[in-house]
Design brief:
By secondary structure, this protein is an alpha/beta fold. The chain has twelve helices and 14 strands. The strands form two sheets. Strands 1, 2, 3, 4, 5, 6, 7, 8, 9 and 10 form a ten-stranded mixed beta sheet that branches. A four-stranded antiparallel beta sheet has the order 11-12-13-14.
C-alpha cells in the first residue's frame, strides 16, 4: 500500500476573487482538501479523488503545467455538487526527475486508486500523460476502452518520439497493451492525417466527426456509457470559448456542449478514469478556459453523483426495471432485442457472444427506430463484429 502524502504537494487555498456563493454552499467547503494542516488519511473513505498533474514536458504546450492550479481556483468558487458524493482533492502530484518518472508515478497512483474503488479525476498537464493510464490497466491486467474527445486524433504512424500529439503510438504499437477499443469524439477532418484515420478504422475504432457529434450530441451518450476511460483535450472546444491552449481552432464544441458530454461521461456505468488536459493559463483570456474547464469537471461530478449503474441491474435480471422489445429485420435469422430502462429511458441491445453469454451493448432510441424501418443499426453491426 502506498502513502499518497509522499506523491502529492498540499493544496494552497487562496481567498476567492469574489464571493457570489456563500462559504458553506461553495464546492471547496464540501470536499476534503489535502493541505499542510490536513494530510491525506483513510483515502478509502472517498468515492472520487481529484489529482492535478502539473507536467508540460513532452509537449509544445509550454505553460500547461500551470493548468491544474488555475482550474482548481475556478472550481473552488463554484457551488457544491448535489448529493452526498465524497470527494477528496489530493493536490498536485510531485513531478518526477524525468517525464518517464512522472508516468511511472502516476501509473502507481491510478492503480492504487482503482484497486481501492476510488475514482480518479485527472487534471493535466499535457495529454502525453495518458500513457500512464494504459500502463495502469496493463499492470492491473484489465482490458479497457478509451474515448478521446479531441479535435485531433493523437496518432502519428511511423513516429518514434512520443509526445502529446502521438501518445496513441505508445499504446497501439505496444503488443502487450490491454486496450480493447478506441473511440474519438469530435475530430476535425482537416486537422488529421488520412493515413492515421484509415489505420484506426481498420482496427474498428469509432471515429465521430465534429459535425456528426454536434448534429446529434445525445448519440455520444451510448458510446461513453460503454467506455472505461474518457479524456478531454480542451482543444476540442472552439477558440472563442476556450482560447487557453496551443492548438486552438475556430471550429469545435461550444462550452455547453462539452459540459453535456462530460455529464454523459459522469453517468456512464463503465467509467473508471476521467481526465482533462492541455489547459494553458499563459495563453488564456480573463481565465475563460480554466473557468470552462472547472465547469466541465463540475458537470462530470454532477453526472457521477446521479449514476444508477443500470448495467448491473441488467446482468442481475432485474426485469421489472426494464421493458424488452423484439424487432424483426429482413436478412437476420433472429430478432434484434432492445431493452429500455423504465426510469432513465436509456436503451441497450441484448446480444449473445460466441460462448453463448448474454451481453448488453448501449444504444439509443434512434437505433430502435432504425430497426423498425427494417434496417440494421450501424451500432449493432459494429457490436456484432466485436463479439464475433
Amino acid at each position: 500500500m502506498i502513502n499518497l502524502n509522499d506523491y502529492f504537494d498540499p493544496v494552497s487555498i487562496e481567498k476567492p476573487d469574489y464571493d457570489f456563493i456563500s462559504g458553506p454552499a461553495r464546492f471547496s467547503h464540501n470536499i476534503f482538501i489535502h493541505t499542510e494542516n490536513n494530510p491525506i488519511q483513510d483515502p478509502e473513505k472517498f468515492r472520487i479523488a481529484i489529482l492535478g498533474v502539473p507536467e508540460e514536458r513532452n509537449s509544445p504546450n509550454i505553460g500547461c503545467e500551470k493548468g491544474p492550479e488555475a482550474i482548481r481556483h475556478q472550481l473552488y468558487m463554484l457551488s457544491r455538487v448535489p448529493g452526498k458524493l465524497k470527494i477528496i482533492d489530493l493536490g498536485n502530484m510531485k513531478k518526477g526527475e524525468t517525464f518517464q518518472d512522472t508516468l511511472i508515478g502516476l501509473s502507481e497512483i491510478l492503480s492504487f486508486l482503482i484497486k481501492s474503488n476510488i475514482f480518479p479525476v485527472i487534471i493535466g498537464g499535457n495529454s502525453s500523460l495518458i500513457g500512464s493510464i494504459d500502463n495502469c490497466f496493463t499492470k492491473l491486467k484489465i482490458h479497457y476502452s478509451l474515448a478521446s474527445i479531441d479535435s485531433r486524433i493523437d496518432f502519428q504512424p511511423g513516429k518514434n518520439e512520443i509526445d502529446s500529439f502521438s501518445y496513441l503510438n505508445r499504446i497501439i504499437y505496444n503488443p502487450g497493451n490491454y486496450l480493447n477499443h478506441f473511440s474519438n469524439i469530435g475530430y476535425q477532418i482537416y486537422l488529421n492525417d488520412f493515413q492515421a484515420i484509415n489505420r484506426l478504422e481498420k482496427r474498428k475504432a469509432d471515429l465521430i466527426r465534429l459535425g456528426d457529434a454536434r448534429a446529434s450530441i445525445h448519440l455520444t451518450e451510448p458510446l461513453l456509457r460503454d467506455t472505461d476511460v474518457a479524456i478531454i483535450d480542451i482543444s476540442c472546444v472552439r477558440q472563442s470559448d476556450a482560447p487557453g491552449t496551443i492548438n486552438t481552432s475556430p471550429n469545435g464544441f461550444y462550452g455547453e456542449e462539452i459540459c453535456l458530454i462530460a455529464r454523459y461521461a459522469g453517468i456512464s456505468d463503465s467509467m473508471k478514469i476521467f481526465g482533462l488536459f492541455e489547459i494553458n493559463p499563459l495563453l488564456d483570456r480573463n481565465s475563460q478556459t480554466s473557468s470552462l474547464a472547472a465547469q466541465i469537471l463540475w458537470y462530470f461530478l454532477e453526472g457521477f453523483g446521479q449514476k444508477l449503474d443500470e448495467k448491473k441491474l441488467l446482468s442481475a435480471g432485474e426485469t421489472g426495471h426494464f421493458t424488452r422489445y423484439h424487432v424483426k429485420v429482413s436478412g437476420l435469422d433472429e430478432d434484434l432485442v432492445f431493452i429500455k430502462s423504465n426510469s432513465t429511458e436509456r436503451w441497450w441491445f441484448e446480444m449473445k457472444s460466441q460462448n453463448n453469454k448474454t451481453k448488453y451493448v448501449s444504444c439509443s432510441y434512434d437505433d430502435y427506430l432504425t430497426a423498425n424501418r427494417n434496417e440494421v443499426p450501424v451500432r449493432w453491426l459494429r457490436a456484432f463484429e466485436k463479439i464475433s
